[in-house]
Design brief:
The complex is a heterodimer. Chain A is mainly α. Chain A contains 18 helices and 2 strands. By secondary structure, chain B is an alpha/beta fold. Chain B has 3 domains: 1-96 and 184-262, Rossmann fold, CATH 3.40.50; 105-182, no CATH class; 280-519, P-loop containing nucleotide triphosphate hydrolases (Rossmann fold, 3-Layer(aba) Sandwich), CATH 3.40.50.300. Chain B is globular and about 75 Å long. Classes of the chains: A mainly alpha, B alpha/beta. Chains A and B meet through α2, α3, α12, α13 and α14 of A and α11 and β19 of B.
Amino acid sequence: MTVSTHDQPAPTTSDVEEHASHAPELLNVPAEQRFPLLGLAERYALLLLTAGICLYFSVSPKSGNVFASLSNVNVVLGGQTAVLMIAIAAVFPLVAGHIDFSLGATTAASMVLAAGLMARHDLPLPVCVVACLAMGAFVGLVNGVAVTVFGMNPFVTTLGVATLLGGIILWYTGGQTIFQGISPDLRVFGSSKIAGLPQVTAVVAVVALVAWYVLSQTPYGRSLYAVGSNPVSARLVGLRVRRNVMLAFVASGTIAGAAGVLQLSRTGSATADSGTALLFPALAAVFLGATAIRPGFFNVAGTVIGALFVSFSVSGLTLSGADSWVSPVFNGIALLVAVGLSTWLGARRRSRQ
Amino acid sequence: MTLLPDPVSAMTEGAAPALSVAGLTKRFGATLALDDAALSVRPGTVHALLGGNGSGKSTAIKVLAGVHQADTGRVQIGGRDQDLASWSAADARAAGLRFVHQDLGLFDGLSIAENFAFASGFPTRSSTSIRWRSLHHRVREVLDDYELDVDPRTPINELRPADRTMVAIARALQDASAGGERGLVLVLDEPTASLAQHESALLLSKLRRRAELGQTVLMVSHRMSEVLSVAHDFTVFRDGRTVATLVDAHPTEDELVELMAGRAVDALRPVGDTTATSSPRLSVRGLAGGPLRDVDLEATVGEILGIAGLVGSGRSTLLRMLFGDRRPDAGEVTLDGRRYRPRDVSDAILSGVAYVPEDRAGEAAFPDLSIADNLSVTRLRSYWSARGMNRRREHAVGRGLISDFKVKAAGTTAPFSSMSGGNQQKVVLARWLQRDPSLLLLDEPTQGVDVMSRVDIYATIREAARRGAAVLVASSDASELRALCDRIVILRDGRADEVLDADGLDPDVLTRKLLRSSGAHQEER
């Protein structure tokens, strides 16, 4: 379903461009001006698809009355807090050409750390929040230094850090869930609403806005896209490649740390879990997002749409009575389709001669 | 010495040639790289294929190797006549051609024996286990045959450079018996280019011995003195044509250079009048590092200074040092009277220095980003305010640059990679020139650029000089240097060896001087 909707306009565009390159008189007209609808369709296909799916599940007799209710929207948005945050976090290193697999574990570690500091050391909530953000930033710094200064493979490095964090979580919790001694203020924050929607969702929205601004509206964000496109060229036009990539990992780790606090405010307890279950839906959202809004590039707006697409689809399927295996299968297929599409879009951009 | 304009008739005197090529034509777009070229190699000789930059010798080798398909042409190997228009790498191999390229294609960390086995297959027992002893035995025999006194288990990176090349040659010829009585023809592309003097001398003496044992060798090189010491026959290409074939000859270096240089066919006309002033901009004293040993040079405001020299002379190294991308070992640089020692690239850019690297795709392009993004990348900050990046102005400036620099592109939103090479280069230049650099460093500014764009680019560079930049142009193209520059510095033996006034300079004289510096270790200066 996803494939066909994205697929249709694209090859046509590329055919047209190929012909255009042989016909000089057409060269002065950008493709978007010649066929404005195709460019728009490519950009907003995922958004339309998400809207279509929501509409379908709203009117479908099997899921309709529950799916469209405000409480279901609340459940979906609230439940996706951590996944959305991790997805936004993952965009930073991905824009610069690196993947970070440690984000799920960073979030899980941040949850356990916040819970532990409150339960075992009676520290006030603000201190715990700062400690979690600092922990996330530190993990990001370790990843960033390993990748930029020592030139270590980001895939293996961040996987190693994730495993290490998983182990530390097990050691710290002793395998037990921490649910006593967590600040009631945090619980209240996590369960209260703004304008009928969960308050945590507002926090996610603010983080998404800031991330969008940083990545697309500042010289720093633009330099990350340049590094992702060609790191050598980036160095030779005077961009501080190492520093900027390192900062991308730090930003990403910090957001993952914040995600842990938000998640704790929702769940009220921290389990000895390594966070893998959070990471993969998040990556699916980021890769899906690279097919929308700015096709061929990782971007925050697309990522948010990708996350909403996946979570509302899964919710609708569940409400329609689908078994529990449907959700991971859907996530997996969405991730594969997303990676395939964004690879193809990227290759098409590069080969448009 | 017999100078025969028609190479094929030369062969009627002796035995049938081991390899002969006739009527070879190859066109790349608008450029005619090879124009009815011919070549004939006698069996058991070392045959040198010579020519300047762009003479078509590399293209000819690539056609023989099956990398490029010829438009027309015949090849005759061991008496079999075949069509080069449908010639593939597999055909070349089946016909008995064996290639060793400048990059030897050896696996550095693996042993000699393993390197052999990757080309010929590992000997195995009944099922899958490798018969190491048998492999080592066979490889040792080959090495003995090539007078290489090394153990087959030695890793490649422990060998001396000349021996590495010999191992690559031995590996290419390890199935010599498979070629039958026809024998194999060994094709060497710039075999000594990366070797030091004594290493290449050793390699060449070994090569000569192989030829005495009956090996046929076709060799491309631009190191004149080496070619003279080893080759029996010579074929000289110029502008894609065979201009001379010397059989069993002993030409002098001057005679060969004369043949290679000839008259520059379409010598580019100088672009405008000089804009050089007398106020100094750049002064380099005793710069050393990499191939550079002690470079002194000066450039004034508005001057275009050419940097000439052969491959490996350090042209690119010089520019990279001035751009802060590589730290010199020693030396003083002053820019506008102040000491200039950039810590890194951004530091150099802040001092008003700009650099266009030779490898556009690898070091200058952001291929999937838009043309506007590629242009604004050197001045991102100027578009930023708290309200975000001013995209509208970025695209407006981009459109202005596109028309000023005569870039043909489908608007500023088109990806960089959608343009032709010449237009890409114009965008890279525009990226820097919008900053009004005080020192502009250009490495092969018109590489892979069509003739029309080339003229535009020359005018652009001269305009930058008129606006007060000192320009350093490193180029391997003598007519380009002649057309573009005010003065030309020849880098040789790590020094700025000679400074020529470009005004009234004959490009052929420059070509000759350059080629002659290939015999860098001779007296001739």
